[in-house]
Design goal:
transcription; Immunoglobulin-like; 3-stranded antiparallel beta sheet; mainly beta; Trp_RNA-bd_attenuator-like_dom; 4-stranded antiparallel beta sheet; globular
Length: about 80
C-alpha cells in the first residue's frame, strides 16, 4: 500500500507561463511512452502538476518558469 501511495502522491512542479500559448504535455509511463494530456497557459497563468503512476514526464513548449524542489528552470528562452 505504501508503494502505491508514494506513486500517487508523487512530486509536484509549478509552471508559470511567461507568454501566451505555453503548452504542457503529460507523457505516460510504461513500455511505450505516449502523450496522455495537454494544457495551454496564457501569460501569467500558473499550473501545479504532479507526477503520478500514469505520468512519468512532462514536455513544456514556450517561455515558462518551472519551479521544482530541485530549483527553478527557465524554458523557451
Amino acid at each position: 500500500m505504501l508503494e502505491k501511495e508514494t506513486a500517487i502522491g508523487g512530486e509536484y512542479i509549478v509552471i508559470k507561463a511567461l507568454e501566451n500559448g505555453v503548452t504542457i504535455i503529460g507523457l505516460t509511463r510504461g513500455k511505450d511512452t505516449r502523450f496522455h494530456h495537454s494544457e495551454k497557459l496564457d501569460k501569467g497563468e500558473v499550473m501545479v502538476a504532479q507526477f503520478t503512476e500514469h505520468t512519468s514526464a512532462m514536455k513544456i513548449r514556450g517561455r515558462a518558469t518551472i519551479f521544482t524542489k530541485h530549483g527553478e528552470i527557465e524554458a523557451g528562452i
